[in-house]
Amino acid sequence: MTESKGLVLVVEDERHIADVQRLYLAREGFGVHVEADGGAGLAAARRMHPVAIVLDIGLPGLDGIAFCKALRDAGDWTPVLLVTARGEEADRILGLELGADDYLTKPFSPRELVARVKTVLRRAAGPPERPAETVGRLSLDPVSRTVRRDGDPVELTTTEFNLLAHLVRHMGQVFTREQLLARVWGYPGYRDTRMVDVFVSQLRAKLGDASPIRTVRGVGYSATAPRT
User: Fold this and answer.
1) Measured over all CA atoms, what is the biggest interatomic distance in the chain, rounded to whole angstroms?
2) ∠ CA(171), CA(122), CA(193), 5° rounding?
3) Is 6 exposed, middle or buried (0-12, 13-18, 19+ CB in 10 A)?
Protein backbone atom coordinates (compact mmCIF):
# COMPACT_ATOMS: atom_id res chain seq x y z
CA MET A 1 0.00 0.00 0.00
CA THR A 2 1.33 3.44 -0.96
CA GLU A 3 2.07 5.74 1.97
CA SER A 4 -0.19 8.78 2.06
CA LYS A 5 1.36 12.10 1.09
CA GLY A 6 -0.77 13.81 3.71
CA LEU A 7 -4.31 15.08 4.04
CA VAL A 8 -5.65 17.73 1.65
CA LEU A 9 -8.76 19.59 2.76
CA VAL A 10 -11.06 20.49 -0.13
CA VAL A 11 -13.67 23.15 0.64
CA GLU A 12 -16.02 23.25 -2.35
CA ASP A 13 -19.81 23.55 -2.49
CA GLU A 14 -20.22 22.19 -6.06
CA ARG A 15 -20.34 18.48 -5.44
CA HIS A 16 -19.29 17.34 -8.92
CA ILE A 17 -16.19 19.55 -8.77
CA ALA A 18 -15.35 18.33 -5.26
CA ASP A 19 -15.74 14.70 -6.39
CA VAL A 20 -13.30 15.21 -9.27
CA GLN A 21 -10.80 16.94 -6.98
CA ARG A 22 -11.08 14.10 -4.48
CA LEU A 23 -10.57 11.48 -7.18
CA TYR A 24 -7.46 13.03 -8.73
CA LEU A 25 -5.81 13.93 -5.44
CA ALA A 26 -6.48 10.43 -4.08
CA ARG A 27 -4.91 8.90 -7.20
CA GLU A 28 -1.73 10.81 -6.37
CA GLY A 29 -1.60 9.37 -2.87
CA PHE A 30 -3.19 12.18 -0.88
CA GLY A 31 -5.81 11.64 1.76
CA VAL A 32 -8.76 13.93 1.00
CA HIS A 33 -11.47 15.41 3.21
CA VAL A 34 -14.26 17.46 1.64
CA GLU A 35 -16.47 20.11 3.22
CA ALA A 36 -19.20 22.03 1.36
CA ASP A 37 -19.32 25.28 3.33
CA GLY A 38 -16.77 27.64 4.81
CA GLY A 39 -17.68 27.29 8.47
CA ALA A 40 -17.41 23.51 8.42
CA GLY A 41 -14.24 23.77 6.36
CA LEU A 42 -12.58 26.10 8.85
CA ALA A 43 -13.53 23.78 11.71
CA ALA A 44 -12.08 20.83 9.77
CA ALA A 45 -8.84 22.74 9.12
CA ARG A 46 -8.43 23.41 12.84
CA ARG A 47 -9.31 19.83 13.76
CA MET A 48 -7.43 17.88 11.09
CA HIS A 49 -4.31 19.99 10.40
CA PRO A 50 -4.15 19.21 6.65
CA VAL A 51 -0.94 19.61 4.65
CA ALA A 52 -2.78 21.87 2.17
CA ILE A 53 -6.22 23.41 1.61
CA VAL A 54 -8.01 23.74 -1.73
CA LEU A 55 -10.44 26.56 -1.08
CA ASP A 56 -13.28 27.83 -3.26
CA ILE A 57 -13.93 31.56 -2.88
CA GLY A 58 -17.69 31.47 -3.53
CA LEU A 59 -18.78 29.37 -0.55
CA PRO A 60 -22.07 29.52 1.34
CA GLY A 61 -21.88 30.85 4.88
CA LEU A 62 -18.26 31.78 5.46
CA ASP A 63 -16.78 32.59 2.05
CA GLY A 64 -13.25 31.77 0.99
CA ILE A 65 -11.91 35.26 1.69
CA ALA A 66 -13.20 35.27 5.27
CA PHE A 67 -11.99 31.66 5.68
CA CYS A 68 -8.46 32.59 4.62
CA LYS A 69 -8.40 35.66 6.87
CA ALA A 70 -9.59 33.67 9.89
CA LEU A 71 -6.98 30.99 9.23
CA ARG A 72 -4.09 33.46 8.98
CA ASP A 73 -5.32 35.59 11.89
CA ALA A 74 -5.11 32.45 14.02
CA GLY A 75 -1.47 31.95 12.99
CA ASP A 76 -2.22 28.94 10.77
CA TRP A 77 0.03 29.09 7.67
CA THR A 78 -1.12 25.88 5.99
CA PRO A 79 -0.65 26.33 2.21
CA VAL A 80 -3.91 27.54 0.62
CA LEU A 81 -4.79 27.14 -3.05
CA LEU A 82 -7.74 29.37 -3.97
CA VAL A 83 -10.27 28.29 -6.59
CA THR A 84 -12.07 31.20 -8.25
CA ALA A 85 -14.54 31.94 -11.01
CA ARG A 86 -13.35 34.00 -13.98
CA GLY A 87 -15.10 37.17 -12.81
CA GLU A 88 -13.61 37.14 -9.30
CA GLU A 89 -10.28 38.87 -10.00
CA ALA A 90 -10.70 41.39 -7.18
CA ASP A 91 -11.50 38.60 -4.71
CA ARG A 92 -8.57 36.57 -6.03
CA ILE A 93 -6.13 39.44 -5.45
CA LEU A 94 -7.62 40.06 -2.00
CA GLY A 95 -7.21 36.39 -1.18
CA LEU A 96 -3.52 36.53 -2.09
CA GLU A 97 -3.12 39.67 0.00
CA LEU A 98 -4.70 37.87 2.96
CA GLY A 99 -2.20 35.04 2.74
CA ALA A 100 -3.29 32.53 0.09
CA ASP A 101 -0.35 30.86 -1.66
CA ASP A 102 -1.76 30.38 -5.15
CA TYR A 103 -4.98 30.23 -7.15
CA LEU A 104 -6.70 28.42 -10.00
CA THR A 105 -9.45 29.87 -12.17
CA LYS A 106 -12.48 27.76 -13.12
CA PRO A 107 -12.72 25.81 -15.34
CA PHE A 108 -9.39 24.06 -14.79
CA SER A 109 -7.84 20.70 -15.48
CA PRO A 110 -7.86 18.40 -12.44
CA ARG A 111 -4.32 17.42 -13.40
CA GLU A 112 -3.30 21.05 -13.07
CA LEU A 113 -4.94 21.15 -9.64
CA VAL A 114 -2.83 18.18 -8.51
CA ALA A 115 0.31 19.77 -9.96
CA ARG A 116 -0.41 23.04 -8.13
CA VAL A 117 -0.97 21.25 -4.83
CA LYS A 118 2.34 19.41 -5.24
CA THR A 119 4.06 22.70 -6.07
CA VAL A 120 2.78 24.59 -3.01
CA LEU A 121 3.88 21.65 -0.85
CA ARG A 122 7.36 21.69 -2.38
CA ARG A 123 7.55 25.41 -1.73
CA ALA A 124 6.42 24.87 1.86
CA ALA A 125 9.16 22.27 2.34
CA GLY A 126 11.69 24.85 1.16
CA PRO A 127 15.08 24.45 -0.53
CA PRO A 128 17.95 22.38 0.87
CA GLU A 129 19.40 23.76 4.07
CA ARG A 130 21.47 26.91 3.67
CA PRO A 131 23.16 29.13 6.21
CA ALA A 132 21.18 32.01 7.67
CA GLU A 133 21.52 35.26 5.77
CA THR A 134 21.51 38.85 6.93
CA VAL A 135 20.51 41.79 4.75
CA GLY A 136 20.64 45.09 6.51
CA ARG A 137 18.11 44.92 9.34
CA LEU A 138 16.71 41.58 8.17
CA SER A 139 17.84 38.06 9.02
CA LEU A 140 16.55 35.00 7.15
CA ASP A 141 16.82 31.50 8.58
CA PRO A 142 16.04 28.89 5.89
CA VAL A 143 15.98 26.03 8.41
CA SER A 144 13.22 27.47 10.60
CA ARG A 145 11.93 29.48 7.62
CA THR A 146 11.71 32.60 9.74
CA VAL A 147 12.46 36.24 9.07
CA ARG A 148 13.36 38.82 11.69
CA ARG A 149 13.47 42.59 11.33
CA ASP A 150 15.62 44.28 13.97
CA GLY A 151 15.36 41.02 15.92
CA ASP A 152 11.57 40.90 15.87
CA PRO A 153 9.80 38.09 13.97
CA VAL A 154 7.91 38.93 10.78
CA GLU A 155 5.12 36.52 9.84
CA LEU A 156 5.35 35.53 6.18
CA THR A 157 3.44 33.01 4.11
CA THR A 158 5.33 30.15 2.47
CA THR A 159 5.35 31.93 -0.87
CA GLU A 160 6.36 35.29 0.59
CA PHE A 161 9.31 33.66 2.36
CA ASN A 162 10.40 31.78 -0.76
CA LEU A 163 10.22 34.90 -2.92
CA LEU A 164 12.25 36.97 -0.45
CA ALA A 165 14.79 34.18 0.07
CA HIS A 166 15.25 33.71 -3.68
CA LEU A 167 15.92 37.40 -4.28
CA VAL A 168 18.28 37.64 -1.30
CA ARG A 169 20.24 34.54 -2.35
CA HIS A 170 20.81 36.21 -5.72
CA MET A 171 21.58 39.65 -4.37
CA GLY A 172 21.83 42.27 -7.09
CA GLN A 173 20.55 40.00 -9.86
CA VAL A 174 17.49 41.30 -11.69
CA PHE A 175 14.68 38.85 -12.39
CA THR A 176 11.74 39.35 -14.70
CA ARG A 177 8.31 38.46 -13.40
CA GLU A 178 8.26 35.44 -15.71
CA GLN A 179 11.57 34.22 -14.28
CA LEU A 180 10.28 34.58 -10.73
CA LEU A 181 7.12 32.64 -11.58
CA ALA A 182 9.28 29.84 -12.96
CA ARG A 183 11.85 29.78 -10.15
CA VAL A 184 9.75 30.56 -7.07
CA TRP A 185 6.30 29.29 -8.05
CA GLY A 186 7.52 26.57 -10.40
CA TYR A 187 5.33 27.74 -13.28
CA PRO A 188 7.43 28.14 -16.43
CA GLY A 189 5.54 29.92 -19.18
CA TYR A 190 2.78 31.08 -16.83
CA ARG A 191 1.30 34.33 -18.12
CA ASP A 192 -0.43 35.88 -15.12
CA THR A 193 2.53 37.92 -13.89
CA ARG A 194 0.37 40.17 -11.72
CA MET A 195 0.63 37.57 -8.98
CA VAL A 196 4.31 38.46 -8.58
CA ASP A 197 3.45 42.13 -8.06
CA VAL A 198 0.90 41.23 -5.39
CA PHE A 199 3.42 39.22 -3.39
CA VAL A 200 6.13 41.87 -3.72
CA SER A 201 3.63 44.45 -2.46
CA GLN A 202 2.79 42.22 0.50
CA LEU A 203 6.45 41.73 1.36
CA ARG A 204 7.11 45.46 1.25
CA ALA A 205 4.13 46.14 3.49
CA LYS A 206 5.34 43.61 6.08
CA LEU A 207 9.04 44.51 5.95
CA GLY A 208 8.58 48.27 5.76
CA ASP A 209 11.70 50.33 5.14
CA ALA A 210 13.84 47.25 5.87
CA SER A 211 12.73 45.65 2.60
CA PRO A 212 15.67 44.98 0.25
CA ILE A 213 13.41 44.50 -2.78
CA ARG A 214 13.86 47.02 -5.56
CA THR A 215 11.80 47.53 -8.70
CA VAL A 216 13.82 47.71 -11.91
CA ARG A 217 11.54 49.66 -14.22
CA GLY A 218 10.62 47.81 -17.38
CA VAL A 219 12.36 44.62 -16.24
CA GLY A 220 11.35 43.20 -12.85
CA TYR A 221 12.74 42.96 -9.33
CA SER A 222 15.99 42.49 -7.46
CA ALA A 223 17.28 42.53 -3.89
CA THR A 224 19.83 45.19 -3.06
CA ALA A 225 21.96 45.36 0.07
CA PRO A 226 21.36 48.62 1.94
CA ARG A 227 24.07 51.25 1.84
CA THR A 228 26.15 51.54 4.96
Assistant:
1) 59
2) 60
3) middle
Q: How far apart are CA 143 and CA 124, in angstroms?
A: 12
pLDDT along the chain (228 residues), means of 10: 74 94 93 94 92 92 92 89 80 83 88 91 69 86 88 89 91 91 75 85 93 93 80
Q: How far apart are CA 178 and CA 99, in angstroms?
A: 21
Taking the model in full, what pTM does it have? Answer: 0.69
Element housing 201 (H / E): helix 194-207
Distance CA 162, CA 119 (A): 12
List strands edge to edge, sheet with 7-11.
Answer: 31-35, 7-11, 52-56, 80-84, 102-105
Cα-based angle 141, 93, 80 (whole degrees, multiple of 5):
55
pLDDT at 2: 47
**Going by C-beta distance under 8 Å and a sequence separation of 6 or more, which residues neighbour residue 171?**
135, 212, 222, 223, 224, 225
Q: Cα–Cα distance between 51 and 31 in angstroms, integer?
A: 10
